[in-house]
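Case study.
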Amino acid sequence: DIQMTQSPSSLSASVGDRVTITCRTSQSISNYLNWYQQRPGKVPSLLIYAASSLQSGVPSRFSGSGSGTDFTLTISSLQPEDFATYYCQQSYSTPQTFGQGTKVEIK
Amino acid sequence: EVQLVESGGGLVQPGGSLRLSCAASGFTFSSYSMNWVRQAPGKGLEWISYISSSNSPIYYADSVKGRFTISRDNAKNSLYLQMNSLRAEDTAVYYCARRLAVAAYHYFDSWGQGTLVTVSS
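After joint prediction, the assembly is written out as follows.
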């Protein structure tokens, strides 16, 4: 199975900050990497697929990059509604493993 | 509008069984592969099972293989998860999720609201 490691596990940031979350995989997955957001008490929702493609309706302050084993999710200017937990997921092979999550909290 | 509505969760004793359902609407259910993903209280997401649009192939996570069975009824626009030999560590919110494929890429683009399964004596 492909192991997913996100860092950091949590972070504190202020509105307007630039935030970067990293996801590292145990083997190369090309760009078969998705990012999801889960607000507190809510259902996960897709942000980015294929490492850098923005899902329809997702604000452009979200961006993704990377290929191979190292990926990043960037929020260019953090908004109040962005305080949530973010998960990466690989779709390269079954099982489609998720990272452990990165919780973005208000500073 | 795509809608996925899970049901069937509840409290069950260790070793017991439960059958979850996911009712789909707003899209052509028979054209999409589907998945079950769970989330233990305060924990992260865990993919547990996949079924293709035509019922084959089917995949399971090692953690549930041999105990859980995924199935679907395209005529009823419904997805199911039969859970047997339940353990305390199966306690979680269970989500059904639609898998969308764009070229070679696939992802879960729609999720149900989840149903809570609690395994406890």
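Observations recorded in class. The two ends of chain A are 36 Å apart (CA to CA). The interface with chain B takes residues 1, 32, 34, 36, 38, 43-46, 49-50, 53, 55, 87, 89, 91, 94-101 of chain A (CB under 8 Å). We will return to this complex in the next lecture.
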